[in-house]
UniProtKB/TrEMBL annotation, chain B:
Organism encoding this protein: Desulfomonile tiedjei
Keywords for this protein: Cell membrane, Membrane, Transmembrane, Transmembrane helix
Protein name: Branched-chain amino acid ABC transporter permease
Top-level taxon: Bacteria
First and last residue of the signal peptide: none
Listed CDD domains: TM_PBP1_LivM_like (cd06581)
Bilayer topology annotation: Multi-pass membrane protein
GO cellular component: plasma membrane
Lineage: Bacteria, Pseudomonadati, Thermodesulfobacteriota, Desulfomonilia, Desulfomonilales
Listed transmembrane segments: 6-22, 53-72, 79-100, 106-130, 151-168, 203-226, 238-262, 274-297
From TrEMBL, chain C:
Keywords, comma-separated and alphabetical: Amino-acid transport, Cell membrane, Membrane, Transmembrane, Transmembrane helix, Transport
Annotated GO MF terms: transmembrane transporter activity
Membrane topology, from the record: Multi-pass membrane protein
Subcellular location, record wording: Cell membrane
A matching Pfam family: BPD_transp_2
Species whose genome carries this gene: Desulfomonile tiedjei
Any single GO BP term: amino acid transport
Name this polypeptide is given: Branched-chain amino acid ABC transporter permease
Record keyword Transmembrane helix present: yes
Transmembrane segments: 12-33, 63-87, 146-163, 192-213, 225-253, 265-283
Entry annotated with the keyword Cell membrane: yes
GO terms under cellular component: plasma membrane
Major localisation: membrane
């Protein structure tokens, strides 16, 4: 299997605190890859380093074989690496349609264009994305008025609009009701099949992780302590000891 | 759609016939209102559409006016060419100062624009050999065809209409949508591939061009230029007109500028305390009508629509007004 | 050499004025997070108020000093009123609204000043003790300038002591970093904000009174100082009290030497300096980007 993303000794410290220390992570094309770990293990920081939301203290990130360490966020995005955020991050006063259309325009290189009218540009493509995530009915509502679950969907649609090859999702089901959660899981599975997406995600719900992931990396105190298929991770002694333990029963 | 066309035709007819109906004084006021619309547009592009609060648009208004005046009196260029020189110099000055300003965010940006505006005023004021200092430059008489009050009204109407069309196209273009995304959520915008730094510089220059065009039209209108055109009181005018009309609405700056200029002309008739009135007006707008005049129209329309549908009917809050 | 020392001295006097005028602004921004654009108008009103009290007490031996104190008291009351009527309602609002409202206050305060005091420049006679010149070799230092310099030092050190060395100071710094915790600890945040605003106005007032020793009281005095004061604030790093002091000295000295060699563009030079510093340190010398939205 071909690798799409690789981090080499990726490190970040805030003052004296080591948030991520020397993480070597390889994500293969087409995989759904989960990063798990207790609170404060450095999952979100790792994501922020990969997309250069924070600048790493050391190490580098390779995407499709190219070094993207320190490249501006918009350039990384244009290369086909899109991300969503843990706290929903949408445009509060734009309509659902506009929000997604923007991503498409941006990836077509039209974001700075002074010509044409946004009313019609890429209308069909935008509607396709909305159809895919199930927001077509709400296309003219403004983002702020959506339910929490729909906001999460909208954010997913915004990232999908970028036509990414790889998607980073930070807690895609955070704060969702159980049935909403499974709708998102189904959606992500469908996306992988239809769009051939590679997905790297963090998640606190272990049911979701073991249902979705092809591969799981366990992060503990900024270090990767295990990187394997879900079944092995569940069996791994060290993981059990320092992370799953009795407080984290695996019910799947 | 048809109603919109009828409305546009009606407004055009009214504006055209005003030139024939109004007496001298009010025709001058109307001309000033038209020109000030461009200054208000310049502010609204930055604040209403991109979320950048600029207290410095007066600088480009002043540079545009002086660019015109110097080309006219020193280089003796043709009138249309002088207009062009003015607008271009405002654009260049916006590019140079904007490069510095857009590196900063939030409050730093706002303060930097104040500093730029005051400095521009200062340069014009001190560079006596070129600008004549606080004497300004006089004798900026436009060509005969448009030198009369009525002629100049129609001339301004034509230019402002064209500029308004450009503004309309601008905010409806993909670039306009990118600006609103940056306003709504800068981080999200960056992560969908928008180079926000480049976009902010671009809109800064474009808005400088609009302010410059306003200055260029204003100079032959008053036949003179003075350094005060570039100071922060002049910039404040752009701010107030913008928020009075509602800076994020398409028609906001037009309504704001018109309301402002006519109110000014009306109030000046019986009191010299116009600044006091402005100050109080801003309090009222910020606390009680945050969307400005167009915000009132918008919320009225939303409510009317809701009543018709019998639902909450909250729709897009965008710029399609 | 004498020229150099004289120039350094007059630069430091200018620095003291910059510092007095900017420190209140920095303090308010640092603790509350609000930028008061009308701060300079309050500074101007303090000058007028000093003139008024001084005129009322003409003939009285300590008229200037009494006017100084009365003006400070008057400005504190005015500051308290403005805080209750206006500022209190905008702390929680977004940046744009805060700037617009305080900007509107500039118009209101300036116009009210014009209504009360008229448009003619006014002059405050220096008290006898400050009219002299202290000479020492080729160096001559006007007593009034020495007083302004001392005033800047004392106000700066006093405020710094309050912030860094007292219990109140600890609470104020907590108000900056852990806003949401204070009510839980039983500390009334509103009273703290009122106090800080009044203190910022008091600093502006001291600057205004000091100005009456340096020049004419007029409607334009705030506007001429505005650009320089904003530059001082930005260079120092917004909200950084020590940064403001450092950059006040930098700008004051720059100004005083510029006025000697390139008098026409002295103010402009400060602006250019600001530009250069911001290119390398966008948050100023001692600021952090933490307060930015």
């Amino acid at each position: 299997m071909a690798e799409i993303l690789r981090t080499e000794k990726l490190t970040k410290h805030f003052g004296g605190v080591m948030a991520v220390s020397g993480v070597n992570l390889v994500v293969n094309r087409g995989d759904i890859h989960a990063v798990i770990g207790p609170n404060g293990a450095g999952k979100s920081t790792l994501f922020n380093l990969i997309t250069n939301y924070f600048e790493p203290s050391a190490g580098r990130v390779l995407f499709k074989g190219q070094d993207i360490t320190g490249r501006p966020a918009h350039a990384i995005c244009r290369m086909g690496l899109a991300r969503s955020f843990q706290l929903t991050n949408i445009y509060p006063k734009l309509t659902v349609f506009e929000s997604v259309q923007m991503s498409l325009l941006s990836i077509e290189g039209l974001a700075g264009s002074l010509f044409g009218s946004t009313g019609k540009l890429l209308q069909e493509d935008t509607e396709n994305v909305l159809e895919m995530v199930g927001l077509i009915e709400q296309r003219d509502l403004i983002g702020n008025l959506l339910s929490h679950g729909d906001k999460k969907r909208l954010e997913l649609a915004i990232t999908l609009g970028n036509r990414p090859e790889m998607l980073l999702m930070d807690e895609p089901t955070a704060g969702m009701a159980p049935d909403e959660t499974w709708e998102i899981v189904d959606l992500v599975n469908k996306l992988r099949l239809e769009e051939n997406l590679t997905i790297l995600f963090t998640e606190h719900d272990m049911d979701v992780v073991f249902e979705m992931a092809d591969r799981v990396s366990v992060l503990h105190q900024g270090l990767v302590i295990c990187d394997a298929v879900p079944e092995e991770v569940q069996k791994d002694e060290m993981v059990r000891e320092c992370y799953l333990g009795s407080a984290w029963p695996v019910t799947s | 759609m048809r109603r919109k066309n009828i409305l546009i035709a009606a407004v055009a007819l009214i504006l055209l016939s005003l030139g024939l109906m109004l007496e001298q004084f009010w025709l001058k006021v109307a001309t000033e209102a038209l020109i000030m619309m461009l200054l208000a547009i310049s502010f609204s592009l930055l604040y209403g559409h991109t979320g950048l609060l600029s207290f410095g648009q007066g600088a480009y208004f002043g540079v545009g006016a002086y660019g015109f005046a110097l080309a006219f009196t020193r280089l003796h260029l043709d009138f249309p060419l002088c207009l062009l020189v003015g607008v271009v110099s405002a654009g260049l000055w916006a590019a140079a100062t904007g490069y510095l300003c857009v590196r900063l965010a939030g409050i730093y940006f706002a303060i930097m624009t104040v500093v730029v505006a005051q400095s521009t005023f200062f340069i014009i004021f001190q560079w006596y050999s070129l600008t004549g200092g606080d004497n300004g430059i006089q004798g900026l008489v436009p060509p005969d065809v448009i030198s009369g009050t009525r002629g100049y009204y129609y001339f301004a109407l034509a230019i402002v209409s064209a500029a308004f069309y450009a503004y309309y196209r601008l905010i409806n273009s993909p670039f306009g949508l990118s600006l609103r995304c940056i306003r709504e959520n800068m981080i999200r915008a960056k992560f969908v591939g928008i180079d926000e730094h480049k976009h902010r510089l671009k809109v800064f220059i474009l808005s400088g061009l609009f302010a410059g065009l306003a200055g260029v039209l204003f100079a032959p209108f008053t036949r003179s230029v003075v350094p005060q055109m570039a100071d922060w009181i002049s910039s404040g005018k752009a701010v107030f007109m913008g928020i009075l009309g509602g800076a994020s609405y398409l028609l906001g700056p037009l309504v704001g500028a018109a309301a402002w200029v006519f109110l000014d002309a009306f109030v000046s008739g019986f009191t010299v305390h116009w600044p006091l009135i402005i100050g109080i007006l801003v309090f009222v707008i910020v606390f009680f009508m945050p969307g400005g005049l167009m915000g009132l129209v918008h919320s009225y329309r939303v409510r009317a629509k809701a009543r018709k549908r019998g639902s909450s009917g909250l729709l897009s809050d965008g710029t399609e007004t | 050499m004498e020229l150099f020392i004289n120039q350094v001295f007059s630069g430091l006097v200018r620095s003291a004025l910059y510092f007095l005028v900017t420190s209140g602004l920095t303090l308010l921004f640092g603790v509350v997070g609000t930028l008061n654009m009308a701060h300079f108008s309050l500074y101007m009103i303090a000058s007028y108020l000093t003139w008024t009290f001084h005129t009322m007490l003409r003939g009285f031996e300590f008229s200037f000093w009494s006017a100084f104190i009365l003006a400070s008291a008057g400005m504190c009351i005015l500051g308290w009123i403005i805080e209750r009527l206006v500022m209190r309602h905008i702390y929680e609002r977004e940046l744009g609204d805060q700037l617009l409202i305080t900007f509107a206050m500039v118009y209101i305060l300036d116009d009210v000043t014009k209504i009360i005091w008229g448009s003619n420049p006014l002059f405050v006679a220096r008290p006898a003790i400050l009219t002299g010149v202290i000479s020492w070799g080729g160096i001559s230092l006007p007593a009034s300038d020495i007083f302004v310099l001392l005033l800047g030092l004392v106000s700066g050190l006093g405020t710094w002591y309050l912030l860094a060395r007292t219990r109140t100071g600890r609470i104020l710094r907590a108000a900056y970093s852990h806003k949401e915790m204070l009510p839980a600890l039983g500390i009334p945040i509103h009273r703290i904000y009122t106090g800080i605003f009044v203190l910022s106005v008091l600093l502006a007032s001291i600057a205004g009174s000091a100005w009456t020793l340096m020049g004419m009281v007029d409607l334009g005095q705030a506007h001429t100082l505005l650009i320089e004061a904003f530059c001082v604030m930005v260079i120092g790093g917004m909200g950084s009290f020590v940064g403001t002091a450092v950059s006040a000295v930098i700008c004051g000295l720059t100004y005083s030497f510029a006025i000697l060699y390139v008098p026409k563009i002295a103010t402009l030079l400060i602006f250019v300096l600001t530009g250069i510093i911001l290119v390398f340190r966008p948050w100023g010398l001692m600021g952090t980007s933490g307060r930015l939205h």
